[in-house]
Amino acid sequence: MMIAIAAQTFAAPSETFIREHVRALAPGRTILLAAKQGGICSIKELEGLPILDELNARKPFRSISDVVNAFRRHWRAYWNPGLAREKRLQVVSFLTKHRVQALLAEYGPIGCLFMGACKDAGVPLFVYFHGYDASKLLRSRRHVRNYQELFRAAAGVIAPSRFLADKLAAIGCPSDKLHVVPCGIDPSRFQPSFREPERILAVGRLVEKKAPHLTIEAFARIANRYPTAKLEIIGDGPLRKRCEALIDELDLRGRVVLHGVQSSDRVVAEMRRASIFVQHSITAPNGDTEGLPVAILEAMASELPVVSTCHSGIPEAVQHGVTGLLVPEGDVNGMAEAMATLLDDTDRAAAFGAAGRARVIEHFTIEHACARLRAIMGLRVQ
Description:
By secondary structure, the chain is an alpha/beta fold. It has 2 domains: 2-184 and 365-377, 3-Layer(aba) Sandwich (Rossmann fold); 187-363, 3-Layer(aba) Sandwich (Rossmann fold). Helices cover 41% and strands 15% of the residues. It has 14 helices and 13 strands. The strands form 2 sheets. It has a 7-stranded parallel beta sheet with strand order 3-2-1-4-5-6-7, with helices on both faces. Strand 6, helix 6 and strand 7 (178-180) form a beta-alpha-beta unit. Helix 10 packs across helix 13 (346-363). It is elongated.
């Protein structure tokens, strides 16, 4: 039994869940398809796996004919989101050579890209939506049309939260093909935090839907009440300059630290030091939403109480008043007071953390997720 996993890239620092699928879904029986040029890089976990990459890579223009051909490809892709004929044949040959039993496409557009090749190869296609692809992209008629074709072609459609699954159902995904499987984590990697006092941690890309500026504003509103408290933010993105300017404006240099992108091992270490995890997720102006943020599950596995928002799939993991505190999207005062509540009541924070780790172990491990995926895909791992 062999499976294929297809993704835009396997190298994105924030997409650890894709690499977890590679590692745990069918160990030793997995091949990879990367649409992006450089989509594999030197990821240690992927060494030794059969790989076909640069399947949808953009090459630099060297002549007018390159520009014309690029325009033609773009126009063709508008009406047909699949691979160009040469690449499609290459993928079919690769799947056939390795006797692939099923293909898991990470994100909706990747499912659209590979659905023709899967049909030609006679390989069942399963598509795992994750966030922007089932929110922001639904504002585009072209993407909705492509997804409706994808729903007909796919053997199964997977979402990490009921919230996103409902969005896909609303545009026509049949209920018998639609499954909710949260991305799982390995709780053994995350040891209970020893909770350095008043050390608050946020982990995530600095993008609109994660609203790091609102987390900083919330911290600013309690900073004078807790003069030794510190907010550490791991991640990078287009809002970094905005966050830096806000830190200066609010006179929080040294109190709020932007660490940029860090390794997964560094994230594990920082979670072990923190006392509270915060994330102010919102629906971005362009419609982009979370699925179920993996960093929140990692924080819960680290026995950190979570302060977050009632956004997308977050309430499906974080139980308000049991494993953390949830506030409405955009409620900066509410988030500030939630942080203050847990800073003041360390026993309650510890109880939330312990309940959070127990909840992850019961419902959100990578073993749970992969067992569900194997059942949906009809896979047997010997």
